[in-house]
């Protein structure tokens, strides 16, 4: 029987990755039975036999042989006079099996069948891809950079499937070239315009969690558990870990001998500073650890309002706040408490300073009162906090804060010049 150029299509379907034979057979059978229903009105007396290995098929039509003139349904019955032309030994009451020539369906119907087959197999591939990566959300995969665009990067996995790494899911200092291999975590799988989209991320906390799992066998074995991860991608990350075995130091295990385990992760994350801390249910101790590398003098904790006022030596304030306020921001996220840092007045060494009230002729009184409200009653106490931190903690506008800092800084500049 003529294969009407469907062999090429069958070969494509046969080679379709991960499509099991029964599913493929069912799809092909459904498509051709639809074709039969359109031509004959029914398909119950047709058998579609598919050979996906050779790339061909047969359609067998079954009809009951009846007496001449007794045919009620030409699709299911055939007169005796026609049956004996095919095989003289046929008798009334027997079934006649004959092969249907696909070309009899017409060129348009055949083309429609090929298009339907392509669409169905495409849907199968999409569903398989969705399931495959849907089950791998949160796992690290590697892909090769195929195309670099302004807003995203297109990667290909080992099977040629397309993966998307958006710009906002990249570490700020990431830079990739075509052909380079990139590791990322599968963040989500979604359908866009009827096409599966596998979205990757290098900034999600789960990426760091999986990297730690790979590098630290104790985490993989479940002896150490990661309680929480917070990140400012490319800047700093804080990881709270806990050990289920008293003999294992969770922080030491994660860092490794001379930092051997953590160094590889730091390089992967573009030199992101990673603070590994020992988790505890003692919230004061957790806050103290979360503000590392700063050393806290003492603190006041309001558990009802989830607030903590932390007091430090003057030289520790900037460490607690961190570059661009990142350290204190991550500490707040890790503990779930709003943390404000203050200079511990008892620990302040004798140092030239000026009360804010001395600047009343240059700074409005309500601004001074607002700064005092957040614990800044001297010029140095204001200057030790960044403009961003002052804006966050007070009700003052950024422009006002910057003008105040300029006025206060000039005081110390003039003093230094006179000296």
From TrEMBL:
Record SUPFAM superfamilies: Nucleic acid-binding proteins (SSF50249), Prokaryotic type KH domain (KH-domain type II) (SSF54814), Transcription factor NusA, N-terminal domain (SSF69705)
Signal sequence residues: none
Pfam family, one: NusA_N
InterPro entries xref list: KH_dom-like_a/b, KH_NusA_2nd, KH_sf_prok-type, NA-bd_OB-fold, NusA_N_sf, S1_domain, TF_NusA, TF_NusA_bacterial
Domain S1 motif: 138-203
NCBIfam families reported in the protein's UniProt record: NusA
Role this protein plays: Participates in both transcription termination and antitermination.
Similarity remark: Belongs to the NusA family.
Protein name: Transcription termination/antitermination protein NusA
Natural source organism: Compostibacter hankyongensis
């Amino acid at each position: 029987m003529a294969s009407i150029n469907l062999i090429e299509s069958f070969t494509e379907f046969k080679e379709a990755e991960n499509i099991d034979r029964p599913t493929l057979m069912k799809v092909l059978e459904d498509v051709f039975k639809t074709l039969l229903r359109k031509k004959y009105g029914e398909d119950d007396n047709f058998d579609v036999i598919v050979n996906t290995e050779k790339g061909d098929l047969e359609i067998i039509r079954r009809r009951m042989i009846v007496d001449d003139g007794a045919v009620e349904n030409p699709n299911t019955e055939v007169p005796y006079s026609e049956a004996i032309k095919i095989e003289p030994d046929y008798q009334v009451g027997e079934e006649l099996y004959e092969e249907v020539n696909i070309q009899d369906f017409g060129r348009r119907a055949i083309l429609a069948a090929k298009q339907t087959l392509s669409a169905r197999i495409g849907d199968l591939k999409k569903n398989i891809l969705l399931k495959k990566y849907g089950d791998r959300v949160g796992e690290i995969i590697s892909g090769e950079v195929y195309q670099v665009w302004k807003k995203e990067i297109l990667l290909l996995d080992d099977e040629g499937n397309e993966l998307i790494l958006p710009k906002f899911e990249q570490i700020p200092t990431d830079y990739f070239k075509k052909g380079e291999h990139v590791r990322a975590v599968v963040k989500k799988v979604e359908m866009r315009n009827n096409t599966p989209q596998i979205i990757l991320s290098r900034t999600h906390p789960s990426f760091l969690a999986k990297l730690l799992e790979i590098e630290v066998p104790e985490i993989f074995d479940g002896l150490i558990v990661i309680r929480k991860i917070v990140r400012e991608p490319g800047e700093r990350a804080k990881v709270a870990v806990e050990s289920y075995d008293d003999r294992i130091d969770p922080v030491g295990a994660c860092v490794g001998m001379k930092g051997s385990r953590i160094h590889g992760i730091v390089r992967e994350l573009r030199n992101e500073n990673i603070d590994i801390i020992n988790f505890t249910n003692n919230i004061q101790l957790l806050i103290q650890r979360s503000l590392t590398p700063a050393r806290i003098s003492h603190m006041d904790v309001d558990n009802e309002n989830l607030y903590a006022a932390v007091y430090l030596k003057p030289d520790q304030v900037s460490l607690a706040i961190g570059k661009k306020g990142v350290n204190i921001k991550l500490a707040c996220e890790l503990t779930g408490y709003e943390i404000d840092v203050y200079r511990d007045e008892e620990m302040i060494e004798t140092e030239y300073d000026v009360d804010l009230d001395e600047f009343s002729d240059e700074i409005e009184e309500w601004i001074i009162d607002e700064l005092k409200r957040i614990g800044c009653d001297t010029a140095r106490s204001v200057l030790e906090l960044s403009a961003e931190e002052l804006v966050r903690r007070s009700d003052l506008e950024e422009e006002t804060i910057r003008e105040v800092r300029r006025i206060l800084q000039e005081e110390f500049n003039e003093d230094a010049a006179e000296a």
